[in-house]
């Protein structure tokens, strides 16, 4: 038996090289990367579509990844870019997308790094989930599609990515819808060592479990059941079905899923190295930059992950026009649980000045 110490294991996982028992997409899907002379639409047929309910899947090439995405609505309409959370999927927007498309918006929902058919282009790229990476992916995705400006919306990981993008690249953002308000993490040493109230800490048990080798193996062996536990705690009033969970679980069949998830939570606790390519952006995020674009923020009143607020505690982070709403009976996966409330928020922010 070979014994690997924790530091070596962490480095392997961060690099995406740890060998864990995780099913992968078929080889033809993993190999379906775009040539530089192939459009996203023409490459669509090469990909395995894990969510056919959302329509055809497309893929676009950035400097680091081939990002898979779904789209709806007229291509000439105002762009709306929506980020999904973890352990969820683009399926969270299955009812939001058609509602916005009917109103003339061009809706785009990319798959997060490490999820579904999104693939890193090189084996040596660090499988980072740090917040600067998530924000940079938003801008790289827009650049690859030639989108100059868009409305941003999201929750959880996807919400963090669009908050980072809105704060650091405000010229690319027409307005922001963010569940749980300001999602840019304060990773200063004093902040991460300051405990939250016990009920909040207990809801985030996996933050600490995933710091351990036991947690890494547990996530790899029990990906769907891990998600089930998080879903139940995050959204105690959501009557999700087994089919809902099955659709989300398809996202976990990605060779980089474990590495990215572990990196997200280990970087959050300064327990894993970050990708040097994002060093300058991370330095800016340590200063907790304000979001200057128009914003509509939402809190679900049945959110088991983050206690709902009236918006006052995060007000200083929003220096542009901002409206805050509390959504009855909604949990952490608000776009899927209350799609009409999320759709209304996008419409509202599109008019906010």
Short description:
This protein is of the alpha/beta class and 353 residues long.
What's the structural blueprint in terms of helices and strands?
Blueprint: H1 6-14, H2 27-30, H3 40-43, E1 58-61, E2 65-72, E3 79-83, H4 96-102, E4 106-110, E5 119-120, H5 131-145, E6 150-154, H6 156-168, E7 173-179, H7 189-192, H8 198-203, H9 205-209, H10 213-221, H11 223-234, H12 242-249, H13 257-268, H14 279-285, E8 295-300, E9 322-327, H15 334-337, H16 339-351
Keywords:
353 residues, disordered N terminus, alpha/beta
What is the number of beta strands?
9
Radius of gyration: 19 Å
Q: Could you report the average pLDDT, rounded to the nearest whole number?
A: 90
Largest sheet: 9 strands, mixed
Kindly report how far apart the N and C termini lie: 63 Å
Shape by Cα distribution: globular
Fraction in beta strands: 5-15%
């Amino acid at each position: 038996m070979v014994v690997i110490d924790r530091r070596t294991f962490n480095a392997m996982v961060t690099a995406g090289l740890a060998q864990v028992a995780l099913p992968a997409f078929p080889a033809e899907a993993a190999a379906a990367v775009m040539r530089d002379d192939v459009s996203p639409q023409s490459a669509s047929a090469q990909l395995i579509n894990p969510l056919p309910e959302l329509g055809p899947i497309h893929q676009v090439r950035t400097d680091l990844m081939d990002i898979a995405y779904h789209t709806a609505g007229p291509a000439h309409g105002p762009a709306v870019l929506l980020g999904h959370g973890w352990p969820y999927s683009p399926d969270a927007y299955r009812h939001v997308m058609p509602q916005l498309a009917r109103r003339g918006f061009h809706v785009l929902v990319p798959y997060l790094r490490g999820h579904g058919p999104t693939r890193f282009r090189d084996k040596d790229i660090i499988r980072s989930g740090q917040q600067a990476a998530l924000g940079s992916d938003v801008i790289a995705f827009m650049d690859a599609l030639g989108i100059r400006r868009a409305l941003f919306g999201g929750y959880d990981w996807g919400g963090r990515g669009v908050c980072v993008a809105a704060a650091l690249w405000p010229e690319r953002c027409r307005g922001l819808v963010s569940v749980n308000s300001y999602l840019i993490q304060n990773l200063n040493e004093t902040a991460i060592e300051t405990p939250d109230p016990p009920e909040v800490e207990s809801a985030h048990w996996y933050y600490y479990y995933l710091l351990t080798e036991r947690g890494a193996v547990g996530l790899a062996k029990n990906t769907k059941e891990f998600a089930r536990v998080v879903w139940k705690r995050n959204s105690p009033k959501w009557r999700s079905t087994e089919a809902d969970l099955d659709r989300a679980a398809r996202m976990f069949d990605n060779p980089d899923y474990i590495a990215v998830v572990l990196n997200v939570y280990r970087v959050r606790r300064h327990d894993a190295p970050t990708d040097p390519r994002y060093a300058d952006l991370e330095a800016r995020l340590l200063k907790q930059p304000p979001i200057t674009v128009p914003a509509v923020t939402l809190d679900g009143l049945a959110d088991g992950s983050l206690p709902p607020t009236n918006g006052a505690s995060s007000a200083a982070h929003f220096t542009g026009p901002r409206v805050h709403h509390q959504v009855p009976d909604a949990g952490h996966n608000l776009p899927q649980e209350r799609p009409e409330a999320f759709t209304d928020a996008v419409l509202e922010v599109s008019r906010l000045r």
